[in-house]
Amino acid sequence: MSLDEGRLIDLAAGDAAENMSLDQAMLESVDQGGPPTLRLYRWRKPTLSLGYFQRYADRKQHSESSQCVCVRRGSGGGAILHDSELTYSLAWPIDPRQTGANTRLYRLTHDAIARAIAEFGLRAVPHSVAGRNDISSGLAASAESGQADRDDNPARSVAEKRPDPFLCFQRRTADDLIVSGYKVLGSAQRKGKRAVLQHGSLLVRASPFAPELPGIWDLGGATDSVQQIAACVASNLSQTLQIAWNKAPFSRAEVVAAQKIAQDRYDNPDWLARR
């Protein structure tokens, strides 16, 4: 399949280990020569996902989510409370000689999702454009997916030397999407040899387990239908990435691989408590 065609895994809900394992299996499939793949999904239960490098004990910092299911992601960044949101994952072929984060894919993807958000009546801009005079003023910048904040502003405040907030959506990187001063989209990457996985969360409504984080509906968006938002995101990604999505399910081999990954990693208490 040529690079101008890709696979779209239609919107579905999964549990914590299943969602993370399918993302990993998808990355491995594209890494082995499979087509570029976009997956849109939800979570069966409110779930707190820890960034790969976060300590499990630090989840005590957020009491509102203390009773939620918890999983450790394979990508970096802060903890995310997955509830009333749309999660996307994109597995994309890369040159095996490429090093570091794929910033072009990161920015193209966020540009496309910003256009999708605009279709529901909101203006979403990268944090590098919104500046630091928003609700996050004084919060430290994060380095999700191992990439440094690319804001070139030399006037770095003393407050930026504080430890990163526990929650991803209280952190900021240059390309995070901001609406009315609030972060509504953040993403992270994990690389294979010949492909990169980028996944991220678009907040739709504030969760009772993270009421401090509004979604696009709370900020005046015209819909809280995840189905409508997912269709709009897929369409805008198709235009931006210049790729035609063909709807297709996961292969049997990918499902089997995901089950093994879940057993070894995302459903394994040792993986969760490894830090």
From TrEMBL:
Coiled-coil residue spans: none
Any GO MF annotation of the entry: lipoyl(octanoyl) transferase activity
Residue ranges of every copy of the BPL/LPL catalytic domain listed in the record: 32-245
SUPFAM superfamilies according to UniProt: Class II aaRS and biotin synthetases
A Pfam family matched in the record: LplA-B_cat
E.C. designation(s): 2.3.1.181
Keyword Transferase: yes
Keywords noted in UniProt: Acyltransferase, Transferase
Annotated protein name in UniProt: Octanoyltransferase LipM
Species whose genome carries this gene: Rubripirellula lacrimiformis
Gene name of the record: lipM
